[in-house]
Automatic annotation (TrEMBL), chain B:
GO cellular component, one term: nucleus
Signal peptide: none
Organism whose genome encodes this protein: Myripristis murdjan (pinecone soldierfish)
PANTHER family assigned to the protein according to its UniProt record, in alphabetical order: MELANOMA-ASSOCIATED ANTIGEN MAGE ANTIGEN (PTHR11736), NSE3 HOMOLOG, SMC5-SMC6 COMPLEX COMPONENT (PTHR11736:SF14)
Ranges of Low complexity composition bias in the record: 244-258
Pfam (any one): MAGE
Record's protein name: Necdin-like 2
Entry superkingdom: Eukaryota
């Protein structure tokens, strides 16, 4: 029998509904704010438990607050996800059929790439061959900026990647639809897009950039954890927020 | 699949093609509901309730009121004979899980909105994108309330202009200000924008909408005014009286009270 919800849980859920996705620091601050607002005891190390109470009550509505890691900064994020959908139709209230088709094509391109990203040029080219209504160049560009604003895609210097929210929410869909192409990070075993790859042609394992930073931290000579070949890529710095040192 | 069922905008239904949908909906009796429930499993009723909750949340995202006719046609469908039971459970879910209240704002056309049972607080660490719009709305609602409940539109436009929000120009934050105030806020039932008869050129007046009546605290407005003018809120005796009178009998009741 799940614990009952209080106003502090409801306030947290309302904030999640407005934002869609928040990082761990924001989640902790929000947890504190919600508990204070309703004079509920706030145990900072019980954040996940607090969120689980909400998720257990959302489950009958096929919703959940799910935790995942950002491929950009390696930090934990919490996203409010819809579990009823097994397709991109979860977005169908905001996007037209041909726009959804273009989004699916963008996902195809990203899943098929080595870098987990696709250029705007490639997306614009694929807009020419839509089976539903065609999209003009200006319409495609406008659609892409809406997808970024709605937090389905990220854009950096003309390259598009799947947002953290998209990965967290669509993971089951991606694992099913792209089971042959989808790769898992060798370190954390979650699906991986933006990553470093072992150069050994018989190995080829992928590791998230933040997972590389954590795994190889402080090692003088980085070696592939699977085949022991020298790891030739630049090791990124571990990203740390100021508050993380306070426990 | 939940969202795929909400196929409202896409298909055109021709007259007579879907037989059930054109029959106007009448509320089933308690005994009819009982009989209907006996024929269904608890899981089926739960599933249908979940779909109705999702539909309301989707509409509420854009603050669009939900019409009973649309709800029955697109979501409830063949479960219409247990409609009151589904609505009862939906209202309970909104209260218990989301802290929202399901309210009927139009008894003739059966239109519902969701209002927040939780008070809006300052200093929330996670700011939602709608906050600046709500700030603007609050200013407009304040003007209307302080002036007795109805103001000519020119007063609202002049007030906004003083705040560097010009309805004639595209605003950096709000875009088309006139459209936001006379269209979006009105559709969301925060404001009413009513024609004043026999005016040449045509003039309108602004009043509080039903959602504002239910969601916005008049005491809060007076407190804000008090701070702005460095006055005791009680010094506006007329407005203070209105703000502290408990809601009159014309206040819409919640659907869960039926």
């Amino acid at each position: 029998m799940s614990r009952p919800m209080g106003d502090s849980h409801r306030r947290f859920l309302q904030a999640m509904m407005a934002k869609g996705i928040i990082n761990e620091q924001e989640a902790r601050a929000l947890h504190r704010h919600c508990c204070d607002a309703h004079n509920a005891h706030c145990a900072p190390d019980r954040l996940d438990e607090f969120i689980d109470v909400i998720s257990s009550h959302l489950q009958p509505m096929f919703m959940q607050i799910r935790k995942g890691m950002s491929e950009e900064d390696g930090l934990p994020y919490y996203a409010l996800v819809n579990m009823a959908e097994t397709d991109v139709t979860r977005m169908s209230s905001d996007y037209a059929d041909n726009e959804l088709e273009l989004f699916r094509k963008t996902m195809d391109l990203i899943l098929g790439s080595e870098t987990g990203s696709v250029s705007s040029t490639d997306i614009l080219n694929s807009a020419d061959s839509l089976q539903t209504k065609k999209l003009k160049k200006s319409e495609t560009e406008h659609l892409l900026s809406r997808l970024v604003m709605d937090k389905w895609l990220n854009e950096k210097r003309g390259e598009y990647t799947l947002s953290t929210r998209c990965i967290i929410e669509m993971e089951p869909y991606i694992r099913t639809m792209y089971q042959d192409q989808v790769k898992l990070c060798h370190i954390c075993h979650n699906i991986v897009f933006q990553c470093q790859i072992c150069e050994n042609p018989t190995c080829g394992i992928k590791i998230h950039n933040p997972c590389v930073a954590r795994y190889f931290k402080g090692r003088a000579e980085p070696r592939c954890p699977a085949c022991d070949d020298f790891w030739p890529h630049e090791i990124p710095e571990v990203r740390r927020l100021q508050s993380q040192s306070r426990r | 699949m939940v969202v795929m069922l909400f196929d409202e905008g896409r298909s055109e239904t021709l007259m007579g093609e879907e037989e059930d949908d054109d029959i106007p909906f009448t509320q089933p009796s308690t005994s009819q509901v009982q009989k209907g429930l006996e024929k269904l499993t608890p899981a089926q009723v739960d599933q249908k309730t979940a779909e109705v909750v999702q539909y309301f949340l989707m509409k509420d995202q854009k603050k669009i009121p939900v019409r009973r006719a649309d709800l029955v046609k697109h979501v409830v469908k063949e479960y219409r004979n247990i409609y009151p039971e589904i609505m009862k459970r939906t209202a309970r879910t909104f209260e218990q899980v989301f802290g929202l209240k399901l309210v009927e704002i139009d008894f003739k056309n059966h239109v519902y909105i969701l209002i927040n049972k939780l008070e809006t607080l300052e200093g929330a660490p996670v700011r939602s994108p709608s906050n600046p719009k709500m700030g603007l709305l609050f200013v407009i609602l304040s003007v209307i309330f302080m002036k007795g409940g109805a103001v000519k539109e020119t007063l609202v436009w002049n007030t906004l202009k003083k705040l560097r929000v010009d309805p004639g120009e595209k605003h950096e934050e709000f875009g088309d200000v006139k459209r936001l105030v006379t269209d979006e806020f009105v559709r969301q039932r925060y404001l009413e924008y009513v024609r004043i008869p026999h005016t040449e050129p045509l003039e309108h007046e602004f009043r509080w909408g039903q959602r504002a009546e239910l969601e916005v605290s008049k005491i809060k407005i007076l407190e804000f005014m008090g701070e702005l003018h460095d006055r005791d809120p009680q010094s506006w005796s007329q407005q203070y009286k209105e703000a502290t009178t408990p809601s009159s009998s014309s206040q819409p009741s919640t659907s869960s009270q039926r």
